[in-house]
Design a protein that fits this description.
- 75% of the residues lie in helices and 0% in strands.
- With 402 residues, it is mainly alpha-helical.
- The protein has a single domain, classed as Up-down Bundle (Growth Hormone, Chain: A).
- It is built from 17 helices and no strands.
- Helix 2 runs antiparallel to helix 16.
Length: 402
């Protein structure tokens, strides 16, 4: 992957770490719904586990955000990899609902295409300083591309446990449990990458490197409220729930669903290469809004499709546009706050996103238990379009410092 000329070696390490996490998340999140159903969990219980994952990530990220001016980002990243190791081992070891609920809350498993874990704000705060300001959006696009593209390959590999079970005549549950070892191995590789980081070691007393929100508090709070609305809507249509909807509505096989999400994540990844060009031409906010609105219209339309091929087509159209806003959003937040407040701003804007998106999967699971119609998709699209219009109205004229 070609990085901007001004990018440092640390930027390459962080992008590779994001890619490995994306592969692990993509691999597990696609078969997670099938695995949990195989354990005998209802759609509501699946939604509860997804909610626990998102709430746990939000609580942990909030704690990191509060202490962002006292804890070096590199230490946060090492702590997060320990949790990632424990998450993979825990899901491989336990099959009962309550232990899995506790592991989901305390762990780092990501049930969506977008990273919402504690890794994100720490990596973003380092990454923003590893490139020239003019190349920041391009670097964040490469960062998002790495996660999305490797997430696509993870989704493509998700049928492997089922294929292994058939080939070697082992119980499917055991094959799925063994698949979580892949997630654990990814954590070990990520530790090795973090050990080579040169930056992100700022001492707790170095206020020029990390500081609590002060100068940028008003704008960060306004952005945070809007991002929370976007994530609340997005929580109705995260990957694990879309997989569950496809299973319940159209009775698709895991192999077919794995292929669908490989294509979806690949489209999402490649679309992010276009995002920096759009941002340079039209602006960051405009890029976020005018790619997001049609994506959400496609999401709503997919719920009304009478056949699986039509539903999949509209989901793919949605994914071809839905992630173009990610690098623009990350770059925008890092560009409207002073450098010393970036870690706190990244945490502040991500925590409510995780909390808001944690509420909706529980509701979505209940809706799918009552009806296989795609009401969660309709709600997701409507809420996210509302966010787009509010964001455009409030921030169209608030430009990045550079």
């Amino acid at each position: 992957m070609i990085l901007p000329a001004s990018a440092t070696p640390d930027a390459a390490r962080l992008i590779l770490a994001r890619a490995l996490r994306g592969f692990g998340d993509g691999f597990v999140s696609v078969y997670l719904a099938a695995y949990l159903q195989l354990l005998g969990f209802s759609a509501f219980q699946v939604g509860a586990l997804v909610t626990a994952m998102l709430i746990g990530s939000a609580v942990l990220t909030l704690g990191v955000g509060i202490a962002a001016h006292r804890v070096a980002p590199r230490r946060v990243l090492f702590g997060a990899t320990v949790l990632m190791l424990g998450t993979g081992a825990g899901f491989a070891a336990f099959t009962s609902f309550w232990p899995l609920l506790a592991i989901a809350f305390l762990g780092t498993l990501n049930p969506s295409a977008n990273d919402v874990s504690v890794f994100l704000p720490a990596e973003q705060s380092i990454l923003a300083g590893e490139v020239a300001a003019a190349d920041r959006t391009t670097l964040f696009a490469r960062y998002s591309l790495g996660g999305a593209l490797f997430g696509a390959f993870g989704a493509l590999a998700s049928p492997l446990p089922a294929a292994t079970a058939r080939r070697f005549n082992v119980p499917l549950v055991d094959a799925f449990r063994a698949g979580f070892v892949v997630y654990t191995l990814a954590a070990i590789a990520i530790v090795a990458l973090y050990r080579g980081l040169k930056h992100g070691r700022a001492a707790a007393t170095d206020s020029t490197q990390n500081a609590p929100l002060q100068r940028s508090r008003p704008i960060v709070l306004r952005l945070t409220a809007l991002f929370a609305l976007d994530s609340f809507g997005g929580g109705f249509a995260i990957d694990s729930l879309l997989v569950l909807w496809l299973f319940l509505r159209f009775h698709l096989s895991l192999q077919v669903v794995g292929g669908v999400f490989f294509a979806a994540r690949t489209l999402s990844a490649l679309s992010q290469l276009v995002s920096p060009r759009l941002a340079a031409r039209f602006g960051l906010i405009e890029t976020m809004v005018f790619t997001h609105i049609p994506a959400n219209l496609f999401l709503i339309l997919s719920a009304f499709m009478p056949t699986a091929p039509l539903a999949v087509i509209f989901l793919l159209l949605r994914m071809a546009l839905s992630s173009m806003d990610v690098p623009a959003r990350q770059s925008y937040v890092m560009s409207v706050v002073p450098p010393e407040e970036r870690a706190a701003a990244a945490s502040m804007t991500n925590v409510p996103r995780s909390l808001a998106s944690a509420i909706s999967p529980l509701i979505a699971g209940g809706l799918l238990q009552l009806s296989t119609f795609g009401w969660p998709l309709v709600l997701a699209g409507a809420l996210k379009i509302t966010y787009d219009l509010l964001l455009l109205r409030q921030f169209r004229h608030v430009r990045p410092h550079h």
